[in-house]
Every structure is written in C-alpha cells, then in structure tokens.
Amino acid sequence: MKLTANRDALLEALTQVQSVVSTKSTIPVLANVLLRADEGKLRLITTDLEVSVRTEVPAEVVTPGETTLPAKRFFSVIRELPPHAVEIEIDEKNTASIRCGTAFFKIMGLSSEDFPDVPEPESENVFTLDQGTLKHMLKCVQYATSVDETRYVLNGIYFSFQEQKLSVVATDGRRLALCEREIEFPAGQELDFVVPSKTINELLRNLDSEGQVVITAAGNQIVFDVAELHITSKLIDGTFPNYRQVIPAACEERIAFERESLLTAVRRVALVTNEQSNSIKLSFQENKVEIISSTPDVGEAREEVPVKYSGKVMNIAYNPEFLMAPLRILHTDEVYLELIDELSPGVMKSGSEFLYVIMPMRMQ
User: Fold this and answer.
1) What is the DSSP string of 243-289?
2) Which of 231, 207, 238, 215 has the alpha carbon at shortest distance from 48?
3) Counting Cβ atoms within 10 Å, is residue 321 exposed (0-12), middle (13-18) or buried (19+)?
4) Mind listing the pLDDT tens digit for each residue in 66-80?
5) Bridge partners, 222 (sequence order)
6) What is the DSSP letter of 211?
7) Could you tell me which of 258, 358, 360 has the C-alpha nearest to residue 305?
C-alpha cells in the first residue's frame, strides 16, 4: 500500500475516529485504526465492537491496500508533522513508513485480517434531520441518562419516530427529560429504539450547527451519517419504560421563573451542600420563592427569588444538580415549574418542545 494525503485532512480524520479507541482492550487490534486505500481515497475505521466510526480523506493512491496502525500513536505523529503532503507506504509486514518534509517515521502495525468487520446496514427506515436540530435535542436530554448498569435500558437515549414527530427521552428513574420536534418522514416508518450513551457522546462531538444528518436503522444497528463521517452502533436491547405515565396530567400551580436568575440562585445556595446532605429546599410564598440549604458541619445559605405566586405555602426539596442541569442547557429567558403538592413530581417546561420531570427529595 502506498499513498499521499494532505496532512491537515488526515489529522482531522484521525481526530474524528480515535475517540472510540480503547487502549485497555484485550484484543490488540482494537487499539488500531484500519486504513484502506483505493480509488483516490483513504478510508479510516475504528471500533470497540459496540461503536464504530468511519471517515475518509482524498488521497493519491499509488498502490491500493489496507493495514492497521496504533491509532493514538499514528495520531500523535501526524499531529506533529509540518503542514505538507504526507507519504505513507506499508510493507508486507504491516510496517508503515511515513514521510513529510524532512520528517520520517516508521510505525509497526497489525494485519487488517484481524480487524473486525463493521456492518453497513441498509434499510428503508431512513430519517433526515438538520444537524443543529438533533444536536440541540440531544443536549436537552442527555444529562438525564442513567449510569446504573443494572438498568441497562436506561443507559442511553430513547428515540421515537411517531406521527411525524421525533421524541427523544432520557431518564435515570429520578428525573426525566423529553424534547420533541415535528419532522417529516414517510408514512409507515414509525420506529422506536434506544441509542447507547457512548454513541450519543460520539455523535454530539461531531454534529455541527449546519448541514444534515441521515439516520439509518436496521435490526439492532443504527448508523448516523454526518457529512463524510459514519457512526455505526449497536442499539440497546430491552423495552424502554412508558415515560408518558410519569408525566403528571395536571398541576395545581404554574410558576414562571427567569431562567438565569433561578440558575444563579440555586448554584449559589448549593455551595454549602455536600454528598451526605445534597438537597436544597424551595419555599413557595406570596410572590417569592426562598431557596434554602442547611448542612450540618458545613453551614447554610438562603436566597430569595421574586415570582408571581399567590397559592398556598409549599416547601419542596430537590437535588440541586438535577434542578440546574436543564437550566444550563436551555436558551429561553423564561421557564415554568408546574407543581401539584410537596410530594408529587414537579415539571419544568420551556416552550412546547421541552419537558423535564423531577422527583422531590424527602426533607430532613
């Protein structure tokens, strides 16, 4: 195999694919990037057997072929090269000779025969969205995914393509984030699936504010095509819980908050919480909410936020991080908190597309 490629293009491609590489795998070739050169392009593929990333760069291919090279080391070498054309030549022992300007490197690789096959599913279930739209929706819910591996089906984001609408949902059992957007797709293509958190992280790392992303679902595989980048992943097996059941159908009080003011107040009051006493109290009174924390051996804090409120006095405790998470992501000036009583779930809303259910904590 012998080729010449642009150093900057090669570096960008390696930046995109190396993030799924694990140096702790018991399978040595998984620490490598597969290089496949033919027809005027160099294709780069990495995988950890759960998530695979593929991209390609234009190349002047003298001799087609393929090999695998240590991904992290190859990336480090290319990153340090001057901005000139990079010549790569692979011998029969999978040793790469790399030349760029006056620099020369030799890197030992492994045979591509040991590299696992990466499926490229074809399906009639194809959905096209704006990258900016999908990126915003995923960021609105991602923080609510569970990290508890005993509830594996919650370790990802639920996608539901139904009734010309995409709903994305994440929950860890104590809070639930939902974002919905109307999109167009052919009738009969209704589909639900759960994408693992690792795949979501990889997708968010590469989504832009412009351009489109194409989603192809087939069996237990999902592919996200973002320009020249292709992210392939297994889907999470199992049935996602019926999230609609945990959303309160009605509320007794609906309080409007200035989003930034609420975030700032909660962040300040949370400074005197700790792992053993990680809660703050919201005390709803006439035209104000007092946000209070009191932690033994640490101290206490209190801040008042003006609101339009004329209901009964209510004291509700929340995990401050759970309360702040959506406030950091949302861009609206105003959010609404809907309440039933001191023991029922609260619902935060922003516009008609975002909804966040948060369970109260038992007050000390």
Assistant:
1) GGGGS-S--SEEEEEEHHHHHHHHHHHGGG--SSS--EEEEEETTEE
2) 231
3) middle
4) 999 999 999 999 999
5) 217, 233
6) S
7) 258
State the DSSP code for 110. B
**Residues with Cβ within 8 Å of residue 13, at least 6 apart in sequence:** 42, 44, 55, 56, 57
pLDDT at 66: 97
| DSSP three-state, residue 124 | coil
- Greatest pairwise CA separation for the chain in angstroms: 80
Task: Answer left, alpha or beta for residue 271, where phi above 0 means left and psi between -120 and 50 means alpha.
Answer: alpha
Q: Is 188 left (phi over 0), alpha (psi -120 to 50) or beta?
A: left
- Tokens 């095509």, residue? 225
Rg of the chain taking only CA atoms, in angstroms? 25
Q: Residue 88 has which token pair?
A: 């790569």
| More confident site: 118 or 106 | 106
Residue (of 356, 288, 273, 364) closest to 319 by Cα position: 273
